[in-house]
Amino acid sequence: MTRQKILITGASSGLGAGMARAFAAKGRDLALCARRTDRLDELKAELADRHPNIKVAVAALDVNDHEAVPRVFGELAQEIGGLDRVIVNAGIGKGWPLGEGKPWANKATIETNLVAGLVQIETALEMFKKSGGGHLVLISSVLGNTGVPGGKAAYCASKAGMTSLGESLRAEYDKGPISITVLEPGYIESEMTARSASTMLMVDNETGVRAMVEAIEKEKGRAVVPRWPWAPLTQVMRLLPPKFTKHFA
């Protein structure tokens, strides 16, 4: 099934912007939202220039403003004539070692990645039920499969929660007309991964986004992307004793 009208949150940079470019090249209409409207406007102009036959709507959205989420989703859907795929992508990677005096950083990550993600999920599913179907994509992380000491503890917890929500939804919607995809990206070049110590495992943005879009288009239930080296590494991560997971920090 071709999903023609796609909403992406956190679309102003990184994986969100990369997916927007990839879907635009496939001729899809796009609803893009993020906090940084200047970047969204630049992206819209770029896509309109390269692909003049598609619709691109943009809107400011802080996903932590929970009341704004259904309003913005609804306005964007109206502007491009509906939604048949929503990609819950907005997220942050703030964090600090637990118990060392910066709880606000960890709280912000869990609120943005998990609580705000839940609000987006609720909104998208309500819209799909009214319209008769759709495809919900949750962007989790390979780090949702393990715990990492130090500043990534809250991030890992938030992504484990997102994966768990997705797995629950996959069980609930095991037959159409609503389909669920849980994506677990490895380290893909973006603003969020710029300070990662595991640069030897990093793939460039184009390669990573290509793998993500391929899995999304196939509407896989759950996929680790890119498959190499992350699919086998993810299996290892689940079995590693805690003291060894520091190598993924």
From TrEMBL:
The record's annotation in Pfam families points to: adh_short
**Has UniProt tagged this entry with the keyword Disulfide bond?**
no
The Ketoreductase domain covers 4-191
As for family, the record states: Belongs to the short-chain dehydrogenases/reductases (SDR) family.
Whether Oxidoreductase counts among this entry's keywords is yes
Keywords assigned by UniProt, alphabetized? Oxidoreductase
> Which top-level group of life is the source organism from?
Bacteria
Species for this entry: Mycolicibacterium frederiksbergense
Protein name according to UniProt: Short-subunit dehydrogenase
